[in-house]
Specification:
Layout (H helix, E strand, L loop, with lengths): L1 H40 L24 H30 L6 H27 L20 H56 L1
Helix pairs in contact: 1-3, 1-4, 2-3, 2-4
Length: 205
């Protein structure tokens, strides 16, 4: 049983490291998507949009344990995927299909990368207790029936920024998980070393 726990712990560390690397890629790709969208719609980087979060989960904090941080992160990413799908659908509805270009390609890349990150964080959640995460609530985040195309553009831009924020949050959250394990292993190693030294001294006496 101890061997099985060790194997599971090693798997969790590997999955966490892989998920963190995917989150870093997603963050770079989100930044690129934001830049492409700003150029396409002639928006400045400092353009005013609402600063409140679209995703409705508690922000990961040092007061939460690893399991709760993963729950919050995975739930937030699920909501981000729903938001992204809504943004893509709304953009096609309001502006029609556009020729395949760098922007469209980047949207597809971001969506696929986000799905991959969700798959990995989902695996991590299962290693904690196997319980399903809370169903994301999208209440209050729709742009509604606004016919103001500029407001629709700002809503899409806000969603892209939200995804960028949570990709960045995912990096810090996931990178912290292996470091905690590494500290525990180092502490265990020091305890074993101390015990071994004491045992040697006792034998010599």
């Amino acid at each position: 049983m101890a061997e099985r726990r060790t194997r599971g712990s090693d798997l969790s560390r590997t999955t966490a490291a892989r998920a963190a690397a995917i989150a870093e890629q997603l963050h770079r790709e989100c930044a690129n998507l934001l830049e492409l969208f700003r150029k396409k719609e002639n928006l400045s980087a400092e353009h005013e949009v609402a600063e409140s979060r679209l995703v409705s989960v508690p922000l990961p904090s040092s007061q939460l344990d690893a399991r709760d941080k993963l729950w919050c992160l995975h739930s937030a990413l699920l909501q981000c995927r729903s938001l992204l799908e809504s943004a893509i659908a709304k953009e096609e509805e309001e502006f029609g299909s556009v020729a395949k270009g760098e922007y469209e390609s980047q949207k597809k890349t971001v969506k696929e990368r986000l799905s991959l990150l969700l798959s990995n964080t989902g695996e991590l959640v299962k290693t904690t207790d196997g319980t399903a995460v809370l169903t994301p609530s999208m209440e209050g985040v729709e742009v509604g029936g606004s016919t103001d195309l500029f407001q629709v553009k700002l809503w899409i831009y806000r969603i892209f920024r939200e995804l960028d924020y949570w990709a960045k949050t995912a990096i810090s959250t996931l990178q912290a998980l292996p470091s905690v394990t590494a500290k525990d292993r180092a502490r265990t190693g020091r305890v074993r070393s101390t015990r071994s030294t004491r045992s040697t001294r006792s034998t010599l006496r």
